Amino acid sequence: MKDNKYNLSVRVCHKGNVLYLPVPNAKLTENQYNQVYVREAMDEGSIKFRESVNEFKTRCERIYSEMTVYNPKRFRELVYSKDKELPKTLVIKDLFDYYIENYEGITLKTRQHFRLSINKLETFQPGLTVHDITHDFLRHFDLKQQEAGLSRCTIDGVFRNLRRVINYFMLEKKTIPKTYEYPFGRGGYSIKSFFGRKLVLRNDEIQKVVDFKDFNDDKEMEYSRNIWLFLYRANGINFADLIRMRWDSIQGGYLIFFRKKTQSTRKNN
Question: What is the distance between the alpha carbons of residues 149 and 158, in angstroms, rounded to a whole number?
């Protein structure tokens, strides 16, 4: 407190941890607070003050919702950092580039996937804008890519990334005009559900691995087999999960750990 003025702050609660973020230029005396918020004064100054505070609160909510993994230090940095300038055009490549470079929590693998998608779109029709992305365009792109030998999975991946970028600039950044005719979903193009064929070992083949004993004193081969069995019996975890395990992962007769591929999803945070 300074000069009998208090900092107005946004309180962020996450799994029992509390973070206070002071609202910039929002210091009030007790009397001023009562006037602005308790009595809800309708003079121009009070209205503008409430608007600026609400904008800051909305900014906090937006940034929090975009973080796949919550980190209080990083969250604070993002809240007080200046927003990077949004694309001035609706060119699809510009929108993809902004999303790839600025979306919080995007992984390197996802960045690469999005870059492959925009490359496919740009190769097909250079200089695409949002207004070029129509139901007819999507059907035409789909047909031509199939004729070129692209797999169903690859084509649908391009469309999912394109849809994500359009949704981001429509619903979150709100730079795509409301008059834009959304090309996906009901009445538009429906992205197909594709489940690729996976080759797996039969039960009798797995049993052969379990029973195998002919290692010819090759300790490395036996060790490799044992590691494979551990991964299999641990519900099919991958090597990244195994490498990250520690002795304290063993708790009361159970092995407790988070899968690498799901640790960044909101429900597991």
Answer: 15
